[in-house]
Amino acid sequence: MPKIILFCLLATASTASSQVTGDFRSAGSDSWELSSTWETYNGVAWIPAILPPELNDETITIRDGHDVTVTTTMDIDQVVIESSATLIIANSKTLRIQDGAGDDFVVFGTVQTIGDIELEVTSSAHFQSGSVLDNDGKFQIVDFATVVFDGTALLDNSDTFKIDNDGQATFNSGTTVLNIGSFNPKGNSFVTFNDASVTNEDEFKVEGNSTITFNTGSVYEHAINGGKIGKTGSMTWNTGSTCVITGTIDKIPDDFDQVFANLVWNSPGQTTDINFDHLIVQITGSFTLASTGTGFVSWLKKDTDPMVVDGDFNVSGGVFVAVDGDTNPVISVGGNLNISGGLFDFSTGDGRPELHIAGDMIQTGGTITETGTGGGLIVFDGSATQTVHHGATISNEIVSHVDNASGVELTSDWSPPDSTVLVNGNMVTSSNKMVIGAATTLLTPGGYIDGALQKTFPDTGSKTYEVGSSSGYSPVDVVVTAGSGEVTVRATGASLPEAANEDETLNRHWSISAAGVTQADLVLHYLETDFPTGLKEDGVELTQYDGESFSFPFSVIDTVANTVSIDGVVPAGDWTLVKLVYLPVEITALATVVDGRNVTVTWETGENSDSFTYELELAQNDGPFVSVAFLNPSTVNQENGRFDYMLADLESGHHRLRLSKIDANGRNIAFAITEFYVSLEPGLLVEAAYPNPFGTSTTVRVGVSESAPVRVELLNSVGQLIDVLHDSTVPANQMIPLKIDADRLPSGIYYVRATAREWQKTTRIIVLH
After folding, report:
1. Alpha-carbon gap, residue 148 to 618, rounded angstroms
2. Residues 373 and 349 sit within 8 Å (Cβ to Cβ)
């Protein structure tokens, strides 16, 4: 209890000054006009008042716990209302505050107006923290009068709050305005909100040359459908202020063509689509979309005026449509694009708007798309490095451009739904990757992917990986010859960490992963500046690291084009160039002897050692080299450095043979190449179809040992002719491929019959759909 008494004494002391003769204070709760309601100070003590206080008296205090009601129109000044006291202005009565000596009207408690309060010429009212103005009548500030609300003071206005003829109203930090009546500056009046909040559910308008200024931290909530937000040209939204639209159902607010600082649209009761119709002149801060009910908000329908947001563009809910029509406006975002929910729809019509982002694009939820017949363009054109975080859906025809010399950095994998163009600047993936699907493209006229790039191979074919590092562009050409799936290539501008000696290793390596791709040809592009001091282009070889050990497959280094080429390899692994270890060995002779379909390979070396292994590779009819044998010298016929090995049952045609000599570390230290030809056996040869059975197409190869006219027919299961696949001369010892498409054949069994001179052969094929 003593603590409570002390608090009350301190509170009372804070709301009143030392009394002087002629001061009045309330003695209880009753009408102002009754003398019994008051006490007066006679210089020595407080005594019952003979008359109630009036204009020319000293300070008039309504004490804690007292409710005093003004029941007649009167003029006063120097009024203090303590924190738990209430002053009530009765219906149809007016309390006029005049500019007298001292503070004219100071409120720590509550003022309830059923009638009127008027602040007359140059008078002032001060509502302190914790005070309440419950205005059910009229509160007017006129003729240079001022009212100030401080701290947690509350204006609860359900009738008329009017500022006129150079009057001023100031709402400072922490104060709140709840308006369900008329808030109306007129004439040349001034209203200022300093870190204050306003919730408007009725009329909030400006007339004449009056102004309303929202300063940093101030929040205006427009909680009605339609209505006015002040007046165009009379509203000032300074940095850090916010306008929040919460009450829209089917009407956009009037006087919406303003320059806002921060604008928030959060109208869960919205039932129709709202078109801003390019009314907003500019948003100098951020725009936030939180809810649009069952409708959407759109920037434009027909015109091409830009939407300018100097700060962030945030979508956490609702639907934003850039253009609900056929135009191509520009939306310029000076900060970040933050999408955590809702929908950002570029176009619902034929338009193709552009979204220019100077900051980062962070998508943790929601959807970025276009639902019309147009499309959309995202342009990253900031001046500093921008980041992209892609953690939700982005779909349809949304093209991305990077036009920033400082580049764009990924903080997640990025899978754009349409083409990406590096106009000016690189895309840095860090530990993530850029993903280009089968239906998307990457164009790099002014940049490259600094890091990892994934592309899809739905079938065999070739693609260039536009990758590099901060030290330069080092692309990789990939030709998939077997398998299908995703191949990812990462370029790193540093030596491979697993390499033993950095001085003998290229300051660049390529990491390749391949899902579903089992064989490919590679061309690695390096920079001359990648070589450390002492390491020369003509003194290196390619190595592949599979995570456990190094291998040294045969490769060709072009020191003019700065490329390394290798054919027919499993592409997965880390690739780099290392110092070539020269050994005093060579292959001094390589020859072949053809006997029917068998070939004996003979070679000689300058040195014989069991520490070497020999690899034989064959390439048929201009195809890739395929390994056919790994040979240990101790298991091969040899005599005085001469080796023999037989290759049996080879297919007919032209063959290239590559013999490689490999040391104990897996290095290819010498190789030689020769060619030979295997003729067909006498007569007609028809190879089995492949694939078989088939659902798309298959190929049958036919050949003759001597040049002759050859007719090849496709028959159905009862021997009826379906098609003639070939009917002309075939050169000797040449197998010709004949493709058969299944799209014109029902499922079933068919026969391919070949006839040449006195020879005839048939093979069966099966079509399955």
Report:
1. 95
2. yes
